[in-house]
């Protein structure tokens, strides 16, 4: 990764106001175990006490008319969505917009602080339970803890830390500067916020399946006033059914995510589909074992432990190339791997 889903109902005024691995040791591949007790926190479900803050339309929204084309697509049929409302990929514009598919007549809206573009968006009776690994991160508690101790433990497995990971990712994304970046499985938006603040991209979309991770991301955005004015949007979607037009995205980032995906092959195929020619995919994850792992121990490293998919260096490269990506490269440190590939 029963769910306590908080309800966020922002109030509009004339001007709107405002882990994935908790404990891993070097070469350890045990699944996440929540080692933080909620007793130590005064925790409650995340609520939006204030509405989405945004600049007047003339400042933020009009400026994006020529910079960022409409890229959202229906997750059912992949037809471009018809948008009613202000243009722009930012919190305020998307909150005030409605989206509809002209082909299947399905509507999507931002009743929360994020735009819900999942297949189940708007359904009243049908509910779908994902694998345990996915459901874990929909928990309000895990979402709250993710940047408050959970993510910090990644360094035990060789992760260099968010600042260094961001720096290396930016180097990989050099050719994508000025284009649209999608941060899939963004969690609480740790890297989405960094990408948005860098000013490198025309817009950044923080995308996750977890409602509570996106709510937590919004809480962090509110604390940093500069982010409220950036081209940053929050979207709920399934990585295996990405709601974007084919060939519309310049860069896709997936930090510490691949091992959490129910089907990495489906996810990478979708990422390849939405990338434009020359687009870059950068990801980090935990390896099942590395070249330094003794041969006698490798058979003991099961591919799936506690509902997570731990791959090897070779499997990740094979996965990327089999989905049509080229120019694969990677950096490995203990159980940490950062990899990059490009759509031809």
From TrEMBL:
Gene3D superfamilies given in the database record: Vaccinia Virus protein VP39
GO molecular function annotation: S-adenosylmethionine-dependent methyltransferase activity
Primary location group: plastid
Top-level lineage group: Eukaryota
Domain Methyltransferase type: 182-282
Subcellular location: Plastid, Chloroplast, Plastoglobule
InterPro entries per record: Methyltransf_11, SAM-dependent_MTases_sf
Family label: Belongs to the methyltransferase superfamily.
Protein name, entry field: Methyltransferase type
Source organism: Parasponia andersonii
